[in-house]
């Protein structure tokens, strides 16, 4: 009871801050029931005078910043979900800055010594004051003495003390408020408020284990090791724990400082092209991409190589989603709108009761205007945004991974265009997309696909005895519960088993035939 009261008071405080800062003005009243329209009208009456004329930060940005780091993190998460909050609110939330005052160096040193089990002087030759601080952790610069006597700089990320308990309390309040929203407005369940809070909880909990961030850094480094224009710092595993992440120090220029980049002699246009191509290689080729590629997380080193940091937020795409993305981009590049439509249907994103031709016509309405404009005015991210808007008319189901991809592409495109305002995004994307399609949908890709199919069929065959045992256990249980015609059920089970065996053999034959055709 006391817990519910606390969450109610906390929720009322959140609502009050949103009202005071004008955040309720973004809510569309058209679909609200009468009692909620009245509540919203009362809430709007609490707005500060002149709040609509305030320059600088948006209402949501001001409100969430006032509410504290947990809500800033929540806002940044919602910025990746325009399918829930709408594009206007998502754009406002993108500007949220996760910056808070640092905690003392002594607190960081105690945390490091406790986690790594050694005095700071043994672990590092030097350890600086914090150089950057956010709601979850802060970063220090340190040095280690290598065996050859050279000092090597490292970045040491230290978890903020008490942050897990604080986020746990705020998440409980958010769960309570999501339940209240559902109770007062059941139609809001299509926005899945409770699911959104649980997704945030999983995301933040993973972000708060720095070993997982080190693993993401290591995986991305492995995927991109052959890319000449992009690199990832190496984690130092022996100096990493749940609360501490130590990695190679990146000495470079942030991509937000274009003037310095040019002054240092780097090719800004080439960097812009590297940004978009690196992202597409990660997304399409590897299926694992940096989902927080804003200018503060991207540097150019002395050799002119693009370097990324901060791997707390990553995105994954399965093979079907990668094929989906590659074929969509290539379809727009080649103006093959029917193929773009077919890809949506093949992936199961658009229900079969719709017409492929009607969908292709809607996609043409997006594609043709972009081919009438100069290349530097065409936005790849805008095309994907319009595409998702159109697919909503065709009952396309929302896929979280594709929404995150689209939002990351918006940021990536903005970074690339800040370096080269006249960048032709489509020409930059074409070699990456065509290379992946040639590799994965050509003869070699078909052979590998047939091999994966054969392995899947092998797994099915190996599972048949276990399935048979499960059926037998069900029969015994039915017998114990007094089922009348157990023998009939057993006959059905045996027939199903025989059918499964023959179906599997037939599928094996098809797979072997596909392999023969592929080799030919």
Q: What number is the mean pLDDT?
A: 78
> For the CA atoms, what is the radius of gyration?
27 Å
- What is the number of domains? 4
Task: Kindly state the percentage of residues in helix.
Answer: 55-70%
Biggest β-sheet strands, sense, barrel: 4 strands, antiparallel
Q: Please tally the helical runs, counting DSSP H or I stretches of 4 or more residues.
A: 21
Low-confidence runs: 502-520
- Kindly report the spatial arrangement of strands forming the biggest sheet: 1-2-3-5
The tally of beta strands, per DSSP, is: 10
Gross morphology: globular
Q: What distance separates the N and C termini?
A: 72 Å
Helix and strand composition category: alpha+beta
Give the strand content.
Answer: 5-15%
InterPro entries: ABC1_dom, Kinase-like_dom_sf, UbiB, UbiB_bact, UbiB_kinase
GO molecular function: ATP binding; kinase activity
Family: Belongs to the protein kinase superfamily. ADCK protein kinase family.
Pathway: Cofactor biosynthesis; ubiquinone biosynthesis [regulation]
What this model shows, in words?
The protein is of the alpha+beta class. The chain folds into 4 domains: 2-98, no CATH class; 99-173 and 207-249, Phosphorylase Kinase, domain 1; 253-441, no CATH class; 444-519. Helices cover 61% and strands 9% of the residues. A 4-stranded antiparallel beta sheet has the order 1-2-3-5. Strands 4-9-8-6 form a 4-stranded mixed beta sheet. A hairpin with a 3-residue loop joins strand 1 (126-133) and strand 2 (137-145). The longest helix has 38 residues, at 443-480. It is globular, with a radius of gyration of 27 Å.
């Amino acid at each position: 009871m006391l817990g519910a009261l606390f969450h109610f008071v906390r929720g009322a405080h959140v609502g009050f801050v949103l009202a005071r800062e004008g955040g309720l003005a973004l809510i569309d009243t058209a679909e609200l029931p009468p009692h909620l329209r009245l509540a919203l009208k009362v809430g709007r009456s609490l707005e500060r005078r002149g709040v609509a004329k305030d320059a600088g930060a948006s209402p949501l940005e001001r409100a969430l910043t006032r509410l504290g780091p947990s809500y800033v993190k929540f806002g940044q998460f919602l910025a990746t979900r325009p399918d829930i909050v709408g594009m206007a609110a998502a754009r406002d939330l993108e500007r949220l800055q996760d910056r808070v005052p640092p905690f003392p160096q002594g607190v960081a040193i105690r945390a490091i010594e406790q986690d790594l089990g050694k005095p700071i002087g043994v672990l590092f030759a030097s350890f600086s004051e914090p150089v950057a601080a956010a709601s979850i952790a802060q970063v220090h610069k340190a040095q280690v003495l290598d065996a050859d006597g050279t000092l090597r700089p490292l970045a040491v990320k230290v978890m903020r003390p008490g942050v897990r308990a604080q986020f746990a309390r705020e998440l409980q309040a958010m769960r309570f408020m999501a339940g209240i929203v559902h109770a007062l407005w059941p139609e809001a369940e299509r926005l899945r408020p409770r699911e959104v809070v649980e997704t945030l909880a999983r995301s933040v909990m993973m972000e708060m284990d720095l070993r997982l961030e080190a693993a993401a850094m290591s995986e991305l480094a492995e995927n991109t090791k052959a890319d000449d224009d992009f690199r990832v710092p190496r984690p130092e595993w022996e100096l990493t724990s749940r609360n501490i992440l130590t990695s190679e120090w990146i000495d470079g220029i942030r991509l937000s400082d274009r003037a310095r980049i040019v002054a240092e002699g780097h090719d800004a246009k080439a960097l812009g092209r590297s940004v978009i191509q690196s992202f597409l290689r990660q997304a399409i080729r590897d299926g694992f991409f940096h989902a927080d590629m804003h200018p503060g997380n991207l540097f150019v080193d002395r050799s002119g190589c693009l370097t990324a940091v901060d791997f707390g937020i990553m995105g994954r795409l399965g093979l079907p989603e990668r094929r989906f993305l590659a074929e969509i981009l290539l379809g727009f590049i080649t103006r093959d709108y029917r193929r773009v439509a077919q890809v949506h249907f093949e992936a199961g994103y658009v229900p079969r009761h719709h017409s492929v031709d009607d969908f292709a016509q809607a996609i043409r309405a997006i594609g043709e205007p972009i081919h009438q404009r100069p290349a530097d005015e065409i936005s790849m991210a805008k095309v994907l945004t319009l595409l998702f808007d159109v697919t909503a008319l065709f009952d396309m189901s929302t896929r979280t991974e594709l929404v995150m991809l689209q939002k990351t592409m918006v940021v990536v495109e903005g970074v690339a265009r800040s370096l080269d305002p006249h960048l032709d995004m489509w020409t930059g994307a074409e070699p990456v997309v065509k290379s992946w399609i040639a590799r994965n949908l050509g003869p070699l890709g078909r052979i590998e696909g047939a091999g994966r199919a054969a392995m899947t069929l092998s797994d099915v065959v190996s599972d048949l005895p276990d399935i048979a045992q499960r059926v037998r256990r069900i029969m015994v249980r039915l017998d114990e519960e007094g089922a009348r015609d157990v023998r009939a059920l057993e006959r059905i089970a045996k027939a199903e088993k025989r059918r499964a065996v023959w179906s599997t053999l037939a599928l094996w034959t098809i797979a072997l035939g596909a392999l023969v055709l592929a080799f030919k």
